[in-house]
Design a protein that fits this description.
mainly alpha, globular, 3 strands, about 45% helix, single chain, three-stranded parallel beta sheet
């Protein structure tokens, strides 16, 4: 944004309606500014109506679900947004695309190929443990896309994130506490720091003023619970048994504890 790039962000959700990530992305971009005044965009408004429900559509709406015309219409809209007021292109960020709907995926396929010759960058995210749709994987090899796997934060990164969150140089005791309890997970680091402030262990300046007591933040627990619910019953059973046994154990205990065949345990 500081470089003049228009940034649009949308996300997929479980069982989302068609085009849900794109509706959110365009809604955020147009909420305060309205549609760009671009004559080349006018012929495409009827097919964009599904994503721009508040847009005035001359001549009624057209059904172009999944078609190349819709892909081109979205590309034209992104281009028009990039030119306002005098931008340097568009960055479209689509989160959680392991839940992407087929209609959005079709548009994304068109955009991914067009991005190679347009002032457009696409960033899409998926969870590592959830298999994304096959067409999404094919896009990585069919275009000049790069793939980045995010790992857990190392000790230096943990310290840096704690410092950023507290907006101050953190006490060594706090850094060690977060390092030992957060497993390098950025979300858990942020939630633990929020929890320490809420119970009075840290003041607003990031100073240590109370005892450091480990506790699983409720928001993080809710996130984990939702993700566990996405697993099949066998995987949930194995996960629960493993959580009781601890971080390191002989995996051959799990078939005995869960009464599941070894192959199912290994798959889980």
């Amino acid at each position: 944004e500081r470089s003049g790039v228009s940034v649009l962000i949308g996300r997929a959700v479980p069982d989302g309606e068609p085009y849900r990530p794109l509706v959110e992305a365009f809604g955020g971009a147009l909420r305060d500014r309205g549609l760009p005044d671009d004559e080349t965009l006018q012929p495409y408004l009827p097919v964009l109506a599904a994503m721009l429900p508040d847009a005035a559509v001359p001549g009624g709406r057209a059904d172009a679900r999944g078609g190349a015309v819709l892909g081109e219409a979205v590309l034209r809209l992104l281009g028009a947004l990039a030119h306002r007021p005098a931008g340097a292109g568009t960055l479209l960020v689509l989160e959680d695309l392991h839940w992407v709907d087929p209609d959005t995926l079709t548009v994304l396929t068109y955009l991914a190929h067009a991005a190679e010759s347009s002032p457009l960058m696409l960033v899409v995210t998926t969870r590592a443990e959830v298999a994304p749709p096959e067409p999404l994987l094919e896009l990585v090899t069919a275009t000049n896309a790069g793939e980045v796997s995010l790992e857990r934060l190392d000790d230096d990164d943990v310290r840096e994130l704690v410092e950023v969150c507290l907006a101050a140089r953190p006490p060594e005791e706090v850094v060690a506490f977060i390092r030992d309890n957060a497993d390098g997970l950025p979300l858990l680091i942020e939630e633990l720091l929020t929890g320490l402030r809420s119970v009075g262990a840290l003041d607003q300046a990031g100073r240590l003023v109370g005892p450091l007591t480990p506790a699983v933040p409720r928001t993080f627990a809710a996130t984990v619970r939702r993700r566990v619910e996405d697993l099949d019953p066998a995987a949930r059973s194995v996960l629960q048994a493993a959580a009781v046994l601890g971080r390191r154990f002989d995996w051959r205990l799990l078939p005995e504890v869960t009464a599941l065949p070894e192959a199912e345990v290994m798959a889980a």
